[in-house]
Design goal:
- It is a single chain.
- The protein is α/β, with parallel strands linked by helices.
- The protein folds into 2 domains: 119 residues, no CATH class; 220 residues, Rossmann fold, CATH 3.40.50.
- The protein contains 12 helices and 15 strands.
- Strands 1, 2, 3, 4, 5, 6, 7 and 8 form an 8-stranded mixed β-sheet that branches.
- β5 and β6 form a beta hairpin.
- α7 packs parallel to α12 and α8 crosses α10.
- The longest helix has 22 residues.
- The structure holds S-adenosylmethionine.
- The site of S-adenosylmethionine has 22 residues, from α5, β10, β12 and α7.
Length: 403
């Protein structure tokens, strides 16, 4: 039955009838993976099934070549998942396993044929920011005079579009009664700050005040000049360290690759000002990595630079997510863009929620995580503790080489 189901899946793709596939009822209950959802996408290298692994607190996407899907499904069905659904234009197939792991295949005709889902092309995705007729993109050096994206800026342009796509979907969930105050921490050359302003103000017609915070005076001056030339009245940049920015009425806080602990400063400011939404893509996780280096427990991981880096990322962002949850934020971490465009492709999305939190349980989880990996402290945790007397742990000038 399992192989029948897999054959129907392959047949539906070959005959352009495939709509979607879902694997559910995970056997392993402890790893928080709830289901896997697969849709067809076309990338430069050909057709793939894009599988979204839905965990309790985050999603992970893996694109698998069609030729590899049979093997992938064999490894999952009946061994990792006890149910699967295949939706085609005309049929709905359900595969179910009983306690003895015997499979049964059910087949239902769709009451009316489903329209095939438009194939997603990575090249033809909806753009939130348009490269043509946008003075600021030209002035920032992202496009030419004719609106062609400059070769080495294509990845940045994609990242910004994707960031805005996610921001857009989050903002739609929130009702704002007044002008929305948005702060971009570590705004750098202002690519994201300008694009967010342009989309929310000019495309959606929202009342916004957008502020970019950046330590480098030269960048701040250039950005303010371009904002003026573009007629972007409610966009301005301020030379400041994130720590010194003390305005309290921030509605939305964003950051894209704020170096190392600057991401913690960003999250901290968001929490302090009770921001409704925080969307932050972290960068270089040095603060925790340096502590990991000293940990005897992690000898095998510490041997390999790349594993050490990934591990530092996982630990840091897990702790950040738990701390945000503890502060009353519904938090999710996703890959916002494929790693072929940037290795720093995680996005922390935290929205203020009224739901009750078990703070003690969350504190215990953080403690356990730190103990497991021999971590003494995480920077955001220290900021939230707010120990004014002992600031020796501070590192105010994180230097990042990922730009
Ligand atoms: C990697 S760049 C990213 C710039 C921009 N967000 C982007 O994605 O194009 C990080 C920027 O954050 C700034 N930065 C780092 N730490 C900061 C801090 N504590 N306060 C303000 N700006 C900071 C750096 O000067 C740099 O311009």
């Amino acid at each position: 039955m399992t192989s029948d189901f897999i054959h129907k899946f392959i047949y539906s793709i070959e005959n352009k009838e495939f709509i979607k596939i879902t694997l559910s009822k995970p056997i392993e209950k402890n790893n928080s993976l709830e289901n896997i959802y697969g849709k067809l996408i076309e990338l430069k290298k050909g057709l793939f099934i894009s599988f979204t692994f839905r965990y309790k607190m985050r999603d992970e996407v893996k694109n698998i070549e069609i030729s590899q899907c049979e093997q992938f499904l064999k490894e999952q069905l009946g061994t990792k998942f006890l149910a699967a659904d295949l939706m085609t234009i005309s049929q709905h197939y359900s595969l179910k396993y009983n306690k003895k792991r015997e499979a049964q295949l059910f087949e239902h005709k769709q009451s009316k044929p489903i329209q095939p889902i438009e194939l997603q092309h990575d090249k033809e995705k909806k753009r939130y920011i348009h490269s043509k007729n946008n003075l600021y993109l030209e002035k920032l050096g992202i496009v030419t005079k004719n609106g062609e994206i400059i070769k080495n800026k294509e990845d940045k342009f994609r990242q910004i579009n994707k960031f805005i796509e996610i921001l857009d979907s989050q903002i739609k969930e929130i009702h704002f009664e007044k002008t929305i105050k948005i702060v971009d921490m570590g705004s750098g050359k202002g690519y994201l700050t300008f694009a967010v302003y342009d989309y929310l103000k000019n495309s959606l017609g929202l009342n916004v005040n957008v502020i970019g915070i950046e330590t480098q005076e030269k960048l701040v001056n250039i950005c303010n000049l371009i904002a003026q030339e573009s007629g972007f009245e409610f966009l301005y940049f301020r030379q400041s360290n994130i720590n010194d920015f003390n305005e309290s009425d921030i509605d939305i806080l964003i950051s894209l690759h704020a170096c190392d602990t600057a991401t913690d400063d960003t999250l901290h400011k968001g929490i302090q000002s009770n921001a409704r939404l925080i969307v932050s893509s972290p960068c270089c996780h040095k603060q925790v990595r340096e502590q990991m280096n000293k940990s005897k427990k992690l000898l095998q991981i510490n041997k390999f630079g790349i594993l050490r880096e990934r591990q530092a990322e996982l630990i840091t962002d897990s702790i950040r997510a738990l701390l945000l949850e503890k502060q009353g934020y519904k938090t999710n971490i996703i890959e916002f863009i494929s790693s072929e465009y940037t290795g720093k492709n995680l996005l922390i999305i935290a929205s203020k929620s009224q739901a009750e939190r078990d703070k003690e349980k969350l504190s215990a989880e953080i403690k356990e995580l730190k103990k497991l990996f021999g971590i003494e402290y995480q920077y955001l945790e220290k900021l939230l503790e707010g120990n004014e007397n002992d600031q020796s742990w501070r590192n105010l000038n994180p230097v990042c080489h990922i730009h």
